[in-house]
Amino acid sequence: MNRSSDNSRGIVAMIGSTALFSANDAATKIAAKSIPPTEVVAIRGGFTVLFVLLIIGWRGEFGLVRKVLTPLVMLRSGSEALVGLLLIIALALMPIADVTAILLIQPFLLTIAGVLLFKETVGWRRWSAVAVGFLGMLLVVKPGTGAFEFTSLVVILAAFLVVVRDVATRKLASDIPTTPIVLVTALLGVMIGGSGVFAGNWRAPGLEPFVASVVAAAFFVFAIILGVIALREADVSVVAPFRYSLVVFAVLYGVFLFGEFPDTWSLVGIALIAAAGVYMLHREAMLRGQMRAGPSAAAAERGPRT
Fold it and tell me: Can you give the residue range of the structural domain that contains 135?
């Protein structure tokens, strides 16, 4: 099979992954309308553990689980588990499209982290994309206006934790398998969610929130699998921009399932965030190509430090 076919399959897998991630958010939002967020996390996490164990058994990876028992994996998985709880809290109170759009500032935060932590060089074009992305976020969040929602700060905190997760992921050894990492994340999610029982507001879930939580777990697991397929079988520079189809699905689910119609400024902000993110991915792909062509060409393309 030629590379073009691999890339086509990768694009389909990436779009499928974003559709399932957004469907996970939608199912989680349905559950969080009836039961506390920590209870949703615990139920979803418990079934995620079950699904992942089945996959690990099918793939014969139980012997690899010991590889993920490291402090770095715990940091990565703990951050992601906390992100899950914060997003469920936000989804219960905010439109799904707004939550998704704010969370998509993560690549811009990661660029800043790369400069501060890894001494990476970022030229004026990517700094401009970062600025446009943050402008888009402000249009969605609307600070200082009557439309501002305090819950937006919860999503921004989640975006910072996603950066912690991604920085930790960059430092993981390449031989650490994906599915055991998902297993650790789900187990920590169960522990974090389970701690909510001490708040005393848990109740027996009805059929709808229980089924929604189980379906969310299935969506989450298969979204990760499709994402891994997309990134391993195709060129990253080709499939990565299609991650931003996530916001399209978020808007569609919000409109058709919850009657959430983003206002004009939110739509403009969402468009700016997506456009800036895709442009940054394009620039990074160009720089990788320049690096393969030679360090001097990459330096010329990157421009002066700013």
Answer: 102-148+263-306
Read off φ and ψ for residue 34, nearest 5 degrees: -115, -30
Indicate the number of domains in the chain. Answer: 1
Segment 142-154, tens digit of pLDDT: 886 666 788 999 9
Nearest to 273 by CA among 143, 111, 100: 100
- Say if residues 189 and 84 touch (Cβ distance below 8 Å): yes
Look at residues 155, 141, 134 and name the one whose alpha carbon lies nearest to residue 89: 155
Q: Give the pLDDT score at 90.
A: 94
DSSP secondary structure, 197-250, as one string: GGGT------HHHHHHHHHHHHHHHHHHHHHHHHHHHS-HHHHGGGGGHHHHHH
Does 270 reside within a domain? yes
* Residue 139 domain flag: yes
Q: How far apart are CA 247 and CA 270, in angstroms?
A: 8
In a domain, 88, yes or no: no
Is 80 exceeded by the pLDDT of residue 182? yes
Rounded to an integer, the average pLDDT of 196-222 is: 92
Average pLDDT over residues 224-246: 82
